[in-house]
Structure formats: C-alpha cells, structure tokens
Specification:
Layout: E1 15-19, E2 26-27, E3 30-31, H1 35-49, E4 53-57, H2 74-84, E5 89-90, H3 97-105, E6 111-113, H4 128-138, E7 143-146, E8 168-171, H5 173-187, E9 193-197, H6 206-212, E10 218-221, H7 225-232, H8 247-260, E11 263-265, E12 269-273, H9 283-288, E13 291-295, H10 299-303, E14 314-318, H11 320-330, E15 335-339, H12 352-362, E16 367-371, H13 373-388, E17 399-401, H14 406-413, H15 418-421, H16 435-445
Parallel strand pairs: 1-4, 1-7, 4-6, 5-6, 7-8, 9-10, 9-15, 10-11, 15-16, 16-17
Antiparallel strand pairs: 2-3, 12-13, 12-14
Length: 446
C-alpha cells in the first residue's frame, strides 16, 4: 500500500514531529560519521522552507531507559546547526518541560531537537502515555513524519505509537525512497535476479531466503552463515563457527531451492586462520594467527585421506575460485540484492571477498540494492577510491544503499514493518503540494 508523504500535505505554520535516525557514531564528543544526518536533510529542509515548525527526535545508542550523557544528542544538534546554517535548539529532556518550551518557542521555518528518546524507559515499551505526550508537543493540528527507516521494524512510542494520536502521519523522503527501492525489488524485479547473502547467522536470514526463493534465479551465500550450509552438505569446516541447530533448516532451504530451480551457490575455497574452536574470534587473535588459502573438501574425503582436515582452523573469508564463481553468476544479472559481508571484514586480510564483490557490483549495470553495514561500507570504500582516481561518478547510479539494517532484512522477508504500517495510506489522487520543489529535494537523496 502506497503511503502519504510530506509532499501530500500543507505544513505552513504547523508543528511537525519528525522521527529521524540520528543513531550516529561519536568520537570525542563529535559526530564521527554524518551519513545518517545527511540522509535526513532533504526532508528537514523541505519542511523548513515551507514554513513548518519542526520538532526532530531520534534515539542514539542503548541508554537502557536512563539519562546518560554519553548518549546525549547534543553533538547531533551541533552538526545539524552547521549543516542547516541555523541554530537547532536542543531540549534537555524528551517530553518534559524543556521539550515543551522548545516546541512552543519555535517560529515558522525553525527546528528544534528533543533529547534522546531512549532516555525515557517508555519509548521501547511503546507506552501509549509517551506516544500521547509526543503528539501533545505538536498540538491538535500537528503532523507526524517518520523518516527513520532504520527503526521502522520497531514498534516504539516515537516510531509507531505516536502515529495513532495524530490526524496526519506521513513518510519523509528517505522513508519513501526506501519503500520504493526495496518494494520494487520484491514486487517487480527485472530478471535475471541474483541475491548475495552473507553475515554471521543463518537464523538472521531464514525468512529472507524463503521469500527470495520465490523471486530469484540464484542465491550466493558467504560469511559465517555459509559454514552452516557447508556443514549441512557434509563439508569439513574444521573449527569454524556454525549453527548446529540450523543444519536441518539449511538442508530444507537447499531442498526448496532445488525444487524451485533456484541455484544456491556456496564457497568452494576459502581463506582460513589457525584458531581453535575454543578461542574467541577477536581482531587481535585473527591478526596474529597464521592464515592460508585452501580448497574445501567433504568430511568423507578427509576420512579417506584424500584431503587434510581443517581441524584447528577457521574459515574467515571466501577464496579466489569462489569469487570467480560468484562473479560469473552475477554476469548478465539485471537485479542484484546484497546483504551481509562475505568474510571477517574487521581484518583487512579477510575483507578481500567482500571488497572484491563490491568492486564487481560497482562495475555492473544491474539495478543493485545493498543493505547491512559492512556491505554498504564496502561499496562506499570502492566509491571513494573511484572518486580519488577521477572515475565517472555515474558509475554508481545503479546502486541504492539502504539505511536500514534489521529493517531492510525484515522488509526483504516480506514482513509488515510497524513504523510504515502506522502511516496514512496515500489517496488515489495525490494532493500535489509544490511538486517541483519536492522533486528537487528528492534528487538530493537519490
């Protein structure tokens, strides 16, 4: 169902509560990575330029329902003030006296920021009393805008509850873009359609795989989750991490794929590190461990003496033959979805597979939707190098980087996200409020 957006409403002179995702990394009291702040700017600027009184809110970190200066949004307010060229007032609480005074003092075209919503224990409980207090900050004719796709899978007071206390609850430009890009992949992907799935656990991706089996021709699996599939096929994975309780699940998924004519591609070789199963996987342990490249063999081949056991070694990245196999499978693809790293990317030696796939995708003409922190970071790294080398920036026009980790996964599973479901559905004939202005703002986040 298509949702109403900020372009469908008149905001002049009205108070607008905007739920953003300002969960940014901090260093020495400053914002260390402003990607999420930049992503929110088109919606914020659009509202300010049309005379709205904008009350921004977000969470940051996990303060566990308590006020903790470490997680204050003060650095975010400073960054926003600099980027918007105007003072963004920061309330000293979430919905208390300071928040009320801040919201009341706003003039048309001004913005203020509430303190970290997770300082209030009611936020993550989706307590209706807090949701009501959020709505009271903007008054009876106030408008709620959700532009935090990254938290859309959470039913919290500021992401879902408040929408039930206002007459108009709409999507911001970032939320709209996420729904559009991810929705297109699920509803009308151009074929051939290939998915690349990595990360640590099969359990995180079961629903995604099941849903994609109805849509893709091929699924390429890497990361630690591939170990569970390899184990399920009888391969020797040595001391590598895997989910023993998901072996039958992996077998069942491969059986379903075979019935539907979908290829599931697993690693045929790997880069491994000499680390026992009892040792904790840490950056220091991995950097100091012996490593090498090996071909993968079945447990039967090991038992028959045809191959050396990997006992005492852990698989931490895909190998070169595997990457060639993956690349061949992506050749000619029209749609690609990638979520999750193919190796232990915190250590450069084992980031090769992830970065290689990122470079291949960057050179592809397929429509690519990428989610997950490590996958997105790999593409950004390739893009940065390309820019430094003076390469054509349009090379990356085919790639959409999703801002949602868990949210994008649940969307790809086909689940209904509470933060989206709570928004007003769009009318058949949209009220085009300054359409060209909206398009200009939309261009900033494309």
């Amino acid at each position: 169902m298509e949702k109403k957006t900020v372009r469908d409403i008149d905001v002049k002179g009205k108070k607008v509560l905007v739920r953003c995702d300002f969960n940014v990394p901090l260093k020495d009291g400053k914002v260390a990575d402003d990607t999420r702040i930049e992503a929110a700017l088109p919606t914020i600027k659009y509202l300010l330029e049309r005379g709205a009184k904008v009350v921004l809110c977000s969470h940051l970190g996990r303060p566990k329902g308590e006020v903790n200066e470490k997680y204050s949004l003060n650095p975010v307010a400073e960054s926003l003030s600099e980027k918007l060229g105007t003072n963004v007032k920061l309330a000293q609480d979430v919905t208390g006296n300071s928040a009320k005074e801040m919201a009341e003092s706003l003039n048309d075209g001004e913005a203020g920021l509430l303190e970290n919503v997770r300082f209030d224990p009611r936020e993550e409980q989706n307590d209706d009393s807090l949701a009501l207090e959020f709505s009271e900050l903007i008054g009876n004719d106030g408008i709620y805008v959700n532009d935090a796709f990254g938290t859309a899978h959470r039913a919290h007071s500021s992401t879902e509850g408040v929408a039930h206390h206002v007459n108009q609850a709409v999507a911001g430009f970032l939320m709209e873009k996420e729904i559009s890009e991810l929705g297109a992949v699920l509803e009308s992907p151009e074929k051939p359609f290939v998915a690349i799935l990595g990360g640590a656990k099969v359990s995180d991706k079961i629903g995604v795989i099941e849903n994609l089996l109805e849509k893709v021709e091929r699924i390429e699996i890497g990361g630690a989750m591939a170990n569970t599939f390899l184990k399920a096929k009888g391969y020797d994975i040595g001391s590598s991490k895997y989910e023993a309780d998901k072996i039958e699940v992996a077998k069942n998924l491969m059986r379903q794929a075979n019935e539907k004519g979908v290829e599931i591609i697993l690693p045929v070789d790997a880069r491994i590190a000499k680390i026992s199963s009892e040792e904790e996987l840490t950056t220091d342990n991995i950097e100091n461990a012996e490593n090498k490249k090996v071909k993968l063999h079945t447990e039967q081949e090991v038992q028959e003496g045809k191959a050396e056991s990997l006992e005492g070694w852990q698989i931490l990245d895909v190998g070169d033959y595997t990457l060639d196999y993956y690349a061949n499978g992506l050749e000619g693809a029209k749609t690609i979805v990638w979520n999750g790293p193919l190796g232990y990317t915190e250590v450069p030696t084992f980031a090769h597979g992830t970065e290689s796939i990122a470079r291949f995708i960057a050179g592809s003409e397929a429509k690519c939707v990428i989610g997950g922190g490590d996958s997105v970071a790999a593409i950004k790294k390739v893009k940065k190098v390309a820019k430094e080398n003076g390469e054509n920036p349009k090379q990356f026009d085919n790639i959409y980087l999703s801002t949602g980790g868990g949210a994008s996964l649940e969307f790809l599973e086909g689940k209904k996200l509470p933060g989206i479901e709570a928004l007003n559905n769009a009318e058949k004939v949209r009220n085009q409020v300054d359409t060209q202005g909206a398009k200009n703002m939309q261009h900033e986040i494309s």
